[in-house]
Amino acid sequence: MRIGIGQMNSQNDKQANLTQAEDLIDRLAGDGAQLIMLPEYFNYIGAEETMPANAEPMDGPSVDRLRRKAIRHGVYIHSGSFLEAADESIFNTAIIVNPNGDLIAKYRKIHLFDVEIPGGKVYKESNTFTPGNETVTVKIGDLTFGLGTCYDLRFPELFRRLIQQGAQVILVSAAFTLQTGRDHWELLLRARAVENLCWVCAAGQFGSAPPHHQFFGRSMIVDPWGVVVAQASDGATPLSGEIDTAKLERIRTRFPALNHRREDLFSH
Q1: At the N or C end, where does the chain have fewer CB atoms within 10 A?
Q2: What is the pLDDT of residues 42-63, one digit of tens each?
Q3: Interacting residues of 21 by C-beta distance below 8 A, sequence separation 6+
């Protein structure tokens, strides 16, 4: 399967962000991508106090535009994440729609980023978002995909659960900060691939965004041996690559570490 990744530089202008996303989808579909993914906060990034007003229901205009693009190109689209308004709460939600525009997966970010970055920047996602409480996998063709979002990457137990649910490919949408991304982004993506013998595809935000965000970018595709097989350059740019099912099966057969799990000791 050919995967397309749209690395974005989203801002606090929702219409401009949607146009940017649609342009990347068009380019990736033209390159033969069958599944296209976007980064976290694909449709809006702004000051904390502006986030609630920019949240949308699942049937809102942002998701509708993704549905129409999926139908037009006959592709699967992973939204990255958007601000979902539901049940009097706001969730950081990722969805996948199929080539008919149908919703086939919905994942609400489980681990919220409440961190003080060296240099004084404080992030407090829990001020805005309600955490999700369900892990999500979805079957597309012959592959099973597991979903994670940004800060989730630091919690290996989530990814092991996805593997236990049959995931062969992990899709990670992110807005990784420049400060942590320089040291940890590639390290964590490769670690999750190696320890779970799975493909990892990660779409990131890049560059400056209001009010004072700096994102790392470097979206990438990592194979089950931990090798980076494709990586985006700086900027809002498309990236694509092939998910080789045979390579995954070959590695899992020759190096069957997943069969050696001591679930009698570590099942929880």
Answers
A1: C
A2: 999 999 999 999 999 999 999 9
A3: 6, 8, 38, 42, 43, 65, 66
